[in-house]
């Protein structure tokens, strides 16, 4: 499947997982027998009937070909994505879904994988843990939630504690006598050659980035659900589209993606916040002003790729492979 193709999937079931969190099992409809493969850590984009496109991590086992399962937190600040899924979508409905993409891959051969999850950030990590269990590889989880009732998959995870060397540590910060995860201590205690992963709210990820700064980047993995900085809308540069041989002026107040869409060009995109990677484009010339949370520092420095939903230009001209 190419990135612009979509699947029509049936909502087979909706399950309560915790206060405010539902999981959705999506199945292939005949004649489609098997879904596109995915690796642990991957996400899919849902194209909702209200026009929104939203990304959700796959949490089921990556060797399953008959279904995708996602978990959705009902966000009180919802701009219509999680609210639609919680309040309108019903079992039996058909959803338009992209093929899986993976910005948060699991290093399956690591001698130890240490996970830090905050709230709904448990979803990709739950999929990774299932993969490591299948492979018989060791792992540790540090899971933060406000309360036990808000901790999705907590019973399943606690049942894994101590099995095959796995460790599950839980911190509830809004319970009586509760505590926060000590992320600097977790990072400082990381055994040599272990890989460390974090997915959760922005303050948790900021603490994670600070605590893991001294570690080799190849052993540190994180996934953001929301933007950390504003999109580049300063404008004042030209975008040349090498394949379609067109050129656009990006004015102040607009992103590159805004300008492409208003010119009738429809590149793939989803979150519009620089977190999902769907809008990634090859840069053939010029210097992007990177504002996404998908590319690593090393990838940013090469200036070979950029996310056009949020990143702008430091040069007067950008030439894109579009
Ligand atoms: S649309 Fe998600 S990173 Fe650009």
Automatic annotation (TrEMBL):
Q: Which CDD domains match?
A: fer2 (cd00207), PDR_like (cd06185)
> Any idea which UniProt keywords this protein has?
2Fe-2S, Flavoprotein, Iron, Iron-sulfur, Metal-binding, Oxidoreductase
UniProt entry tagged with the keyword Flavoprotein: yes
Q: Where is each 2Fe-2S ferredoxin-type domain found?
A: 237-322
| All copies of domain FAD-binding FR-type, residue ranges | 4-107
Q: Which SUPFAM superfamilies match?
A: 2Fe-2S ferredoxin-like, Ferredoxin reductase-like, C-terminal NADP-linked domain, Riboflavin synthase domain-like
What GO molecular function annotation could you give as one example from this UniProt entry?
Answer: oxidoreductase activity
InterPro entries reported for this sequence: 2Fe-2S_ferredoxin-like_sf, 2Fe-2S_ferredoxin-type, 2Fe2S_fd_BS, Beta-grasp_dom_sf, FAD-bd_FR_type, FNR_nucleotide-bd, MRET, OxRdtase_FAD/NAD-bd
Segment forming the signal sequence: none
Give the protein's recorded name.
Answer: Oxidoreductase
Lineage of the organism: Bacteria, Pseudomonadati, Pseudomonadota, Betaproteobacteria, Burkholderiales
